[in-house]
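Support case: iron/sulfur cluster complex. Customer-provided input:
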Amino acid sequence: MKSIKALSLFSGGLDSILAARLIMEQGIELIAVQFVTPFFSYEILQDVEAYQAEVKRKYGINVLVENISPGYMELLRKPVYGFGKNFNPCIDCKIFMLKRAKELMVELGASFLVTGEVVGQRPMSQRRDALNVISRDSDNKTVLLRPLSAKLMPETEAEQKGWVDREKLLAFGGRGRAPQMALAKEYGISDYPAPAGGCILADPILSKRIKRLYAGEFNFGIDDVGVTDIELMLVGRQLLVPQGFFTWSAGGEGDSGFWLIVGRNEEENLRLEGLAEEGDVLFYMEDRSGPNILLRRALGALSAEQEGELFALAASLVVRYGRKIDGGFPPEMVTCKRGETSFKIMGEAPEGDSFRAWNL
Ligand code: SF4
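Agent response - structure generated as follows:
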């Protein structure tokens, strides 16, 4: 008889760890896959091998890591099943991952898929009807096994064919975490992340920013939103300057705004420098400590005069967010770096604090 292999979706959360372990306990070879996007688990890409070693050491699980960002960015533009409480398209997200997992399953010669989903645990994606939709739309109705809730659900192929002993699967349901914690203890697993952390699309504050980006409130189209935009969303202080602020603007309602990102410390300043791309301008003072400010993708469609006004505003904010001198913010030369070229303009701090209303 050929040896049976399973592929499990792995998020690093306790449920996905336990689901994988339950299947491994039955003597089945299991490979886990951790998908990453700039919305969750992206930091893993900084050192994939270290992450794989950590998962193996802590939980005994072999994990692959795959970056699914391009397709995911696309999904977010118009998820079929909409959004949850924040900007989280959980049902489409699961379908998308499971479709890719099915392809991987075939590539790796695995026979079925495993997830740590629990009936009734999450309001949007783990209601029974949502779980059915996820299996159906990802084309995984027969091959997707959810070991933690298996006894509350119809048999899947893995049980019917006797690859997995259904009796040893579980009937967890609802929002409580006590059974999971007891099982973790049984397996000797104590070091696992808190539930529901990690996805910024479900974060009430960060998701609001991303929602505005995808709502077209920025001065570039949502088709142009890329991974770097999302990475930038998570750095520093964020300002969206309404076009109505500028003398040349017609000031129409719904006009898109210009995006400025203000570094709040040395680390964020360096990060902004590293993430700057063609079409961005970086502003900073050479002779006084203060922030780097990144003006994102504002060039191209503006006249020299319009650019001048925008640059003057960015430079004024560099001074305003910079170090105080004698209790104030006297004018200072600000460098504007655009690709390989740079020039300087005088930055004069704005009067008053009205710019704070632009905080994203
Ligand atoms: S919380 Fe985030 S990662 Fe989890 S299912 Fe929802 S959108 Fe996907």
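The chain has eleven helices and eleven strands.

Case will auto-close in a few days if no follow-up is received.
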